[in-house]
Amino acid sequence: MKKDNRIAAVLPHSPADALDILPGDTLLEINGQEVIDFLDLDDALAQPGTLHLRFSRDGQIFEKEGQNHCLEPFGLQLEPLSLNRCRNNCIFCFINQLPPHLRQSLYIKDEDYRFSFLYGNYITMTNMEDADFERIARLHLSPLYISVHATQHELHQKMLGRKRVPDILQQLQFLAENDIEFHTQIVLCPEINDGENLIETINALLSFAPHLRSIAIVPVGLSSYRENLCPLRKNTPDEAQKIIKIVRAYQRKCLLMWGSHLIFAADEFYLLSGSGFPHFSSYEDYPQYENGVGMFTFALKNFHRQYHYWQKTRTKAPPPFQKILLLSGASAAPYWQKVFQKKKITQGE
Questions:
Q1: Domain check: are 100 and 67 in the same one?
Q2: In a domain, 55, yes or no
Q3: pLDDT for 261-287, tens place per residue?
Q4: How many CA atoms lie less than 13 Å away from 256 in the CB half-sphere?
Q5: 3-class DSSP state for residue 110?
């Protein structure tokens, strides 16, 4: 992993400033612990006490000693994290399906456990070494967000589009043994990792509860730019209904065993199947919201709240013409139309 331990700034009049530390210096160690990035610095600054700092400047090594009081900033700011890139060639990777000539940042494939911890980015852990896992355990970087897709090793390799990938179950076992919690996702590709393969993957993941925080089953996203890529198709409505039944059965089991639903289906499966959405409370604290799980129900809940407020606060003689504007994707539009019909809101109103 590339080190991001170069000092970007020193806060004026801070303890670090009093030590004559300069921007451009490289922070090598704190109390004998190697510094890779600001996570190591933050960990060291979490407790008050004496800090033994080791730096490099223009090829020269020097040491400083300062006091960390925790009541004031120590004053060191390291360079921003440099993103570790993904080396997989996942058969469903949406970045490989993007049209040309977009802004370059859209083509970046990230695979960095630090961004997983900080921002909820999903990782496969295929580019991680033993030192990375040891660092996660030492700094207690929890929870992480992990793309699993399949726990059967050969199928896992096929999904990631490469051979000699680490055993995902052994990696998850290490995290659980070191009290690291994790959210997981399964990108479901019809006739590949669904059916009995999906059941086996779910059962394997549930064996890590309570360190397993959630499982999201999400549909494969396909674009029209799939030349020379693995042939894939979307789920049918019947397949979506079967997935929902599987999820509901496991949710009942998980509620009894762990007091949490744990496993969730993406909104698209409910839209595709034509079945009703779960009650908003079944999504608990929406652990997979950014993964498209519970977004419609959350929006519907807020719509009802706002509509009730509008009905309650409007005057006895409202203006003759009022509008409600709601922007929706094509797949969700029929559901919103049903909501409007129940509220007696006509299209165009």
A1: no
A2: yes
A3: 999 999 999 999 988 899 999 999 999
A4: 5
A5: strand
